[in-house]
Amino acid sequence: MDFTDPSASALYEAVVRSGGDLVVGLDFDGTLAPIVEDPTRAHVHPEVPDLLVALSEVVRGVAVVTGRPVRQALALGDLDQVGSRINDLHRSFLVLGQYGNERWTAVDRRVVSPRPPAGLAGFLREVPSLVRRAGAPDAYVEPKGLAVALHTRRLDDPAGSFARLLPLVTDAAARHGLAVEPGRLVVEVRAPGMHKGLSVRRLAEEWSAKGFLFAGDDLGDVEAFTELRAMRTEGVATMAVCSHGGDGPEELEELADLVVDGPDGVVELLRALVHDLS
Ligand SMILES: [Mg+2]
After folding, report:
1. CA-to-CA distance for 95 and 78, rounded, in angstroms?
2. I need a labelling partner for 33 at 20 to 30 A (CA). Which of 57, 69, 79, 184 fits?
3. What's the CA gap between 133 and 129, in Å, rounded?
4. For residue 119, which phi and psi values (nearest 5 degrees)?
5. If we measure between CA atoms, which residue out of 253, 271, 204 comes closest to residue 232?
6. Which 3-state string (H, E, C) describes 200-213?
7. What totals of helices (H) and strands (E) does the chain contain, helices first?
8. How many angstroms separate the CA atoms of 163 and 146, rounded?
9. Which of helix, strand or coil describes residue 225?
C-alpha cells in the first residue's frame, strides 16, 4: 500500500505486525457493498467473498458488523458460503447483525438473537402518523425484527423529508424507551444499549486481539472508531478506515486513520493486507 499520510503508514505497519492476532471488522453497506437506491440489491463487491476467505487464513478472525439483520447480510454477501469455506479451513468468521444484537458464526450457522425490545410494538403503531406529520407518508418502512428503519431515499425530497422526520421519530422513540440510529437518509429505531463499539470490544476480547482494523462508512460506525482509539491506548494496534462514498458523515472521517474510496478502496486495502500478511 502507498500511503500519502505517514501516520497512516505507521499504523498500518503496526497492524501488519500484529499478524495472526489481528481482527478485521467490516461494515456491510457502503463498505463491502456500494450504496444503492434499493437496499435489497446492495450486493457485495465481486472480489469480497474470495478476499474474506483469504483474509481469514492470515488473521485471527474476520467479522462483518452491520446494522442489517444477519440474514440479509448473509444473502447479499454470499456470506453463508464464505462462512462454510472459512470453517473448512478451521479459521474464524462471524457476522454480527443489528449492530451486534444478532450473532451468526461460521461454526454454528444459526442466528442467535434477543427478543424484540418492549417499546417497539407501540412505536410501530405510531409510524403511520409520524410519517404523515413529517409530510413523508410514502417513506419506506423496513421492519427488521428487533428494529424498524424509515428510509426517505426514494421520496421526491429525500433530504427535506428526512430533516422533518428525524425529530419526530427521535421524540417518539424516546417515549417508547428506544434508541435512534440516524444514517444516510435513513433512521433506525431500536433497543438502546448496543452499538458497534461494544461489538468491537467484545470481538477483541473473544479473539484476544493484539491488532484491530475496522472499516465503516456511516454514523453507526462512529462508536467502533471511538472504541479503536481507546484500545490503542491499551496497546492494541488499531486502524480505523473510513470508506468514503461521497456523502458520508464528516464526524466519521475526522475519527478515521485512513480514508479510502468506497468499497473499491476497501477491497484494495484488504488485498494489500492479505499480501503483506502472507
Ligand atoms: Mg455502512
Report:
1. 12
2. 57
3. 6
4. -80, -5
5. 204
6. HHHHHHHCCCCEEE
7. 10, 11
8. 24
9. helix
Residue with cell 499520510: 5
Helix (H) or strand (E) holding 102: strand 102-105
Tell how far the Cα of 151 is from the centroid of ligand 1, in angstroms: 14
CA of 218 from ligand 1 middle (Å) equals 5
Query: Any idea where the domains of the chain sit in the sequence?
Result: 12-114+194-277, 120-190
pTM of the predicted protein model: 0.90
CA of 29 to the centre of ligand 1 (A): 4
Return the residue matching grid coordinates 454480527: 96
How far apart CA 210 and CA 187 sit, in angstroms, is 34
Distance between CA atoms of 150 and 257, rounded to whole angstroms?
A: 31
Q: Which pairing describes strands 179-182 and 147-151: parallel, antiparallel, or unpaired?
A: unpaired
List CB contacts of 124: < 8 A, sequence separation 6 or more: 143, 148
Tell me the residues surrounding ligand 1 (ion) with CB < 5 Å.
27, 29-30, 217-218
CA–CA gap between residue 89 and residue 85 (Å, rounded): 7
Say how many Å lie between the CA of residue 28 and the centre of ligand 1. Answer: 6
Going residue by residue through the chain, which has 278 residues, state the pLDDT in tens, using 9 for 90 and above.
Answer: 778 788 999 999 999 999 899 999 999 999 999 988 787 888 999 999 999 999 999 999 999 999 999 999 999 999 999 999 999 999 999 999 999 999 999 999 999 999 999 999 999 999 999 999 999 999 999 998 899 999 999 999 999 999 999 999 999 999 999 999 998 899 999 988 889 999 999 999 999 999 999 999 999 999 999 999 999 999 999 999 999 976 778 899 999 999 999 999 999 999 999 999 99
**216 vs 263: CA distance, rounded Å:** 10
Rounded Cα distance, 18 and 93, in Å: 18
